[in-house]
């Protein structure tokens, strides 16, 4: 099996998954008790015939399979309809909120990977010592703490008591009305890029710090434990002994010889844990009222905004599926054995 | 070898004891087990630790009261606790009337006694027993105004006002009447005021009946507060939580000057009345008989029952109260149940499902394996929490829905592990031997493969509980809690969303969260210990 067949197989897999998610999303909202029309229409104000006519106009009177096909088409073309609450297209809101979530998840993943892998390697190297014990215990505690509670405690200590960080949001509230002016704009290949002022960067960082720190603490334990486990296995291999016998520096052995080989499971777990990270992000965004997708889930549930909810779930699932696909690809490139499976 | 049922049971009990002993010997295991045992005791016998119902008993103290021990910490000097001023407010006991200080302008004509057979039937009065104040005159010389003051003094020992206060008084007026213009009017009308005198001697009139002069006899009890029965007419209500209905005036002790005090506009009457000083206060009822009747043998009796006054403290119990004045400590204790119940049951469901799928996929192989594993992979990829949120939002957040959903979404990774174990087990010679001896598929699965997986099952059970506990808490915190029970997650929900981010109430934030974390860590520790005991390979490595 060559690389091309491998990719093709993964692509088919991804399509099947997407279809599966779409179906689940459809079925869940079909099962929902109550008539969806009642979300829009006050039955006291309209005659039953009028409501029937509206149902027909919205396509709710169609047979199930017609609605299903229509739904699939709409989802694939990103036509999510309008939010019940704001009345604006859901897709527009998603485009507005997605960058915030991507930034939070991306930033925290990179930072936590660096911290977790570094500490994991050191922990494996010093296995059995007090440092190792303390490291593992602290990681375990942060790993098992409820994320939302960690966020609440941080808010309590750093925002309420010490006043170092703001209580909510991704930027000062007045920016909603008066967005800050960029320092200057650069025209790069026809795309206008606004460069923010130092003032704006400072405020954004101040707002980002706590959510980012919460997510990093939530994630780094997993990386640490995994790195430590795989490193422990790798460090018992013969070639490490050889490297030691050659008189190589410990650091070279650890990071160049051992970590490289121990990194394969890390990549798989990176992809598999994407859903896990999203879980953390949803909760963290809700605690800090971060204007991302996760915070939006909570808002749309509490306001019963089902079109938005359906779209968010779909988008999140698509993100996870794509992340998995990318991880598979990387895996295919890094580990040549995979292709000939 | 055929074992009897008894021998089998003995064997499994012995095995279990061995496992527990091994866990206790392991440092991590002993730590985890100790914590879990404490929580199990909380869950099984919550009544041992608290007398209050976690959700049923409202207004135990003021809204969002601090814990009592905060009073002894710096910054907690201004906190106050509940005071129930009147002992036996229902006058069940004849001695109860001696707790009051009684002063009157004309002792000869006024008589105060205990009536055992008559009383306000509701609230604190509940049943017979009341106090009667009778004004009686035989000659034909009207005495003008005769005032009786019945008051109870109490020492207010706190340097801060209560969160709020409330009280009642039920009265019944009867007496000799005469008919004027078709109306039956009392010979001696009365005026009744309920007041509180603060440490400085300022008298706050809390309540007078809406018609200031009572000139007709009552045909039923009247109470100051709405009563459960509609038979009694409500006159006026004066809990400070209902500031709208309160009115009165303040009498200065030195000048005797009256100034109107409109509770309606007062921002916090409890602050005005109680202030920040300790001292003797009194709560009382002032009855004025206005005798201008020229007739002989006139008599008016005022029956008093359900004379009740309490303050709602700003400090309460071990952990204070929530927004509705419910005891947080008992919520914490009862919350253990929910976490353990959901965590354990969902883990068991998940493990059983994983076991079934893994066994089927691993042992039956081929098409079944392919199908089941594709399905497992698909479910693994779908983000768990968003799916859970959507499902709970649609199906409703009852505790059993939560358990079932958590169980049904938590079997996938275990199924994969079981499958890989079964794949390696089925190639072992002893399985082949059993098959050669003519054993059926189910027999082999049950007698040869399953026992070899039990170690894995125990470890997975212990390791999946913490995640489930945290997920349950997260869902509750997001607002998907079962409204009939109080869980730790719901407690945190109420801090953040109901109490408007009351992060200054750090005990309320810290207590449930640390319980969640502690229980989760305990299960992780047990999982580690079991892993070390049941998978001896690990022992030399770590």
Radius of gyration of chain A: 25 Å
Element order of chain A: H for helix, E for strand:
HHHHHHHEEHHHHHH
User: What is the structural class of chain B?
Assistant: alpha+beta
Question: Mean of residue pLDDT of chain B?
Answer: 83
Molecular shape of chain B: elongated
Low-confidence stretches of chain B: 226-247, 538-542
Beta-strand residue percentage of chain B: 15-25%
Fourth-tier CATH superfamily name of the domain at 97-303 in chain A: MetI-like
Corresponding CATH architecture of the domain at 97-303 in chain A: Orthogonal Bundle
The gist of it:
Chain A is mostly helical. Chain A has helices at 3-31, 37-40, 48-58, 64-76, 90-125, 130-144, 147-161, 198-235, 238-245, 250-272, 274-287, 293-302, 306-334; strands at residues 184-188, 191-195. Chain A is globular.
Helix and strand arrangement:
The complex is a heterodimer of chains A (341) and B (542).
Chain A lengths: L2 H29 L5 H4 L7 H11 L5 H13 L13 H36 L4 H15 L2 H15 L22 E5 L2 E5 L2 H38 L2 H8 L4 H23 L1 H14 L5 H10 L3 H29 L7
Helix pairs in contact in A: 1-13, 5-6, 5-8, 5-11, 6-8, 7-8, 7-11, 8-10, 8-11, 9-10, 10-13, 11-12, 12-13
Chain B lengths: L4 H21 L1 H18 L38 E2 L16 E4 L5 E6 L14 E8 L6 E13 L7 E12 L1 E4 L2 E4 L3 E8 L5 E5 L14 E2 L9 E2 L13 E4 L6 E4 L7 H6 L4 E13 L6 E15 L15 H37 L1 H16 L2 H12 L3 H10 L3 H14 L3 H8 L4 H37 L10 H11 L7 H29 L2 H5 L1
Parallel strand pairs in B: 11-12
Antiparallel strand pairs in B: 1-16, 2-5, 3-4, 4-16, 5-15, 6-11, 6-16, 7-8, 9-10, 9-15, 10-13, 13-14
Helix pairs in contact in B: 1-2, 2-4, 2-12, 4-5, 4-7, 4-8, 4-10, 4-12, 5-8, 6-7, 8-10, 9-10, 10-11, 10-12, 11-12
Describe the model:
The complex is a heterodimer of chains A (341) and B (542). Chain A is an all-alpha fold and 341 residues long. Chain A is 72% helix and 3% strand. Chain A has helices spanning 3-31, 37-40, 48-58, 64-76, 90-125, 130-144, 147-161, 198-235, 238-245, 250-272, 274-287, 293-302, 306-334, and strands at residues 184-188, 191-195. Chain A is globular, with a radius of gyration of 25 Å. The termini of chain A are close together. With 542 residues, chain B is α+β, with helices and mostly antiparallel strands. Chain B is 41% helix and 20% strand. Chain B contains 13 helices and 16 strands. Chain B has helices spanning 5-25, 27-44, 269-274, 328-364, 366-381, 384-395, 399-408, 412-425, 429-436, 441-477, 488-498, 506-534, 537-541, and strands spanning 83-84, 101-104, 110-115, 130-137, 144-156, 164-175, 177-180, 183-186, 190-197, 203-207, 222-223, 233-234, 248-251, 258-261, 279-291, 298-312. In chain B, strands 1, 3, 4, 6, 11, 12 and 16 form a 7-stranded mixed β-sheet that branches. Chain B has a 7-stranded antiparallel β-sheet with strand order 2-5-15-9-10-13-14, with no helix packed on it. Classes of the chains: A mainly alpha (341), B alpha+beta (542). At the A-B interface, helix 1, helix 6, helix 7, helix 11 and helix 12 of A face helix 5, helix 6, helix 10, helix 11 and helix 12 of B.
């Amino acid at each position: 099996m060559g690389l091309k067949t491998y990719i093709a197989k993964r692509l088919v897999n991804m399509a099947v998954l997407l279809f599966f998610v779409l179906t689940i999303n459809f079925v869940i909202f079909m099962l929902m008790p109550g008539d969806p029309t009642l979300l829009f229409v006050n039955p006291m104000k309209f005659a039953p015939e009028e409501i029937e006519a509206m149902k027909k106009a919205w396509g709710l009177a169609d047979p199930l399979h017609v609605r299903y096909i229509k739904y699939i088409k709409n989802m694939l073309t990103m036509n999510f309809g309008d939010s019940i609450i704001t009345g604006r297209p859901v897709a527009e809101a998603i485009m507005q909120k997605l960058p915030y979530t991507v930034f939070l998840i991306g930033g925290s993943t990179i930072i936590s990977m660096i911290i977790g892998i570094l500490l994991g390697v050191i922990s494996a190297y010093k296995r059995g010592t007090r440092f190792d014990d303390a490291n593992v215990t602290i990681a375990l505690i942060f790993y098992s703490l409820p994320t939302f509670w960690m966020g609440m405690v941080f808010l309590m200590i750093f925002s309420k008591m010490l006043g170092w960080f703001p209580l909510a949001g991704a930027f000062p509230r007045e920016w909603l009305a008066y967005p800050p002016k960029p320092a200057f704009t650069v025209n790069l290949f026809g795309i206008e890029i606004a460069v923010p002022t130092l003032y704006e960067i400072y405020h954004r960082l101040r707002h980002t710090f706590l959510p980012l720190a919460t997510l990093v603490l939530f994630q780094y334990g997993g990386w640490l434990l995994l790195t430590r486990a795989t490193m422990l296995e790798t460090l018992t291999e013969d070639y490490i002994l050889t490297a030691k016998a050659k008189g190589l520096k410990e650091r070279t052995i650890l990071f160049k010889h051992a970590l490289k080989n121990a990194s394969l499971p890390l990549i798989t777990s990176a992809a598999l844990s994407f859903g896990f990270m999203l879980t953390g992000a949803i909760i963290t965004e809700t605690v800090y009222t971060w204007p991302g997708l996760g915070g939006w889930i909570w808002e749309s549930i509490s306001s019963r905004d089902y079109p938005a909810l359906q779209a968010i779930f779909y988008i999140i699932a698509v993100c996870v599926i794509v992340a998995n696909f990318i991880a598979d690809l990387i895996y295919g490139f890094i580990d040549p054995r995979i292709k000939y499976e | 070898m055929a074992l009897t049922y008894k021998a089998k049971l003995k064997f499994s009990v012995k095995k279990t004891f061995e496992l527990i002993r091994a866990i206790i010997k392991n440092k991590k295991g002993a730590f985890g087990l100790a914590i879990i045992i404490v929580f199990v005791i909380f869950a099984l016998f919550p009544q041992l630790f608290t007398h209050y119902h976690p959700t049923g008993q409202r207004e135990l103290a003021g809204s969002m009261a601090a814990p009592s021990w905060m009073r002894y910490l710096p910054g907690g000097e201004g906190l106050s606790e509940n005071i129930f001023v009147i002992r036996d407010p229902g006058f069940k006991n004849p001695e109860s009337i001696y707790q009051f200080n009684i002063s009157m302008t004309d002792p000869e004509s006024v008589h105060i006694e205990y009536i055992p057979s008559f009383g306000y039937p509701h609230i604190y009065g509940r049943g017979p027993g009341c106090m009667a104040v009778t004004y009686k005159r035989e000659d034909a010389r009207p005495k003008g105004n005769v005032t009786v003051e019945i008051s109870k003094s109490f020492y207010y020992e706190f340097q801060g006002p209560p969160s709020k206060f409330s009280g009642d008084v039920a009265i019944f007026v009867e007496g000799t009447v005469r008919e004027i213009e078709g109306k039956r009017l009392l010979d001696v009308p009365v005026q009744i005021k309920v007041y509180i005198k603060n440490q400085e001697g300022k008298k706050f009139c809390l309540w007078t009946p809406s018609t200031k002069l009572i000139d007709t006899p009552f045909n039923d009890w009247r109470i100051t507060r709405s009563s459960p029965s509609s038979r009694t007419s409500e006159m006026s209500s004066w809990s400070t939580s209902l500031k709208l209905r309160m009115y009165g005036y303040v009498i200065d002790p030195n000048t005797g000057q009256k100034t109107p005090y409109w509770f309606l506009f007062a921002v916090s009457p409890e602050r005005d009345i109680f202030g920040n000083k300790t001292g003797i206060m009194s709560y009382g009822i002032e009855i004025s008989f206005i005798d201008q009747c020229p007739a002989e043998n006139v008599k008016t009796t005022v029956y008093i029952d359900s004379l009740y006054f309490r303050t709602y403290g700003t400090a309460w119990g071990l952990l204070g109260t929530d927004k509705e004045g419910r005891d947080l400590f008992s919520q914490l204790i009862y919350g253990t149940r929910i976490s353990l119940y959901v965590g354990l049951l969902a883990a068991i469901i998940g493990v059983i499902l994983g076991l079934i799928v893994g066994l089927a996929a691993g042992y039956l192989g081929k098409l079944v394996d392919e199908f089941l594993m594709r399905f497992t992979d698909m479910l693994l990829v779908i983000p768990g929490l968003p799916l859970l949120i959507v499902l709970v939002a649609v199906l409703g957040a009852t505790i059993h829905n939560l358990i079932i959903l958590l169980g049904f979404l938590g079997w996938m990774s275990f199924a994969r592990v079981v499958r890989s174990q079964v794949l390696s087990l089925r190639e072992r010679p002893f399985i082949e031997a059993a098959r050669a001896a003519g054993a059926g598929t189910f027999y082999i699965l049950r007698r040869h493969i399953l026992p070899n997986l039990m170690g894995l099952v125990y470890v997975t059970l212990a390791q999946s509980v913490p995640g489930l506990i945290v997920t349950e808490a997260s869902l509750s915190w997001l607002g998907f809690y079962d409204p009939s029970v109080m869980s730790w997650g719901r407690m945190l929900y109420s801090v953040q969303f109901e109490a408007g981010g009351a992060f200054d109430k750090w005990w309320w934030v810290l207590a449930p969260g640390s319980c969640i974390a502690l229980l989760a860590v305990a299960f992780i520790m047990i999982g580690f210990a079991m892993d070390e005991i049941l998978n001896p390979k690990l022992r030399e490595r770590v």
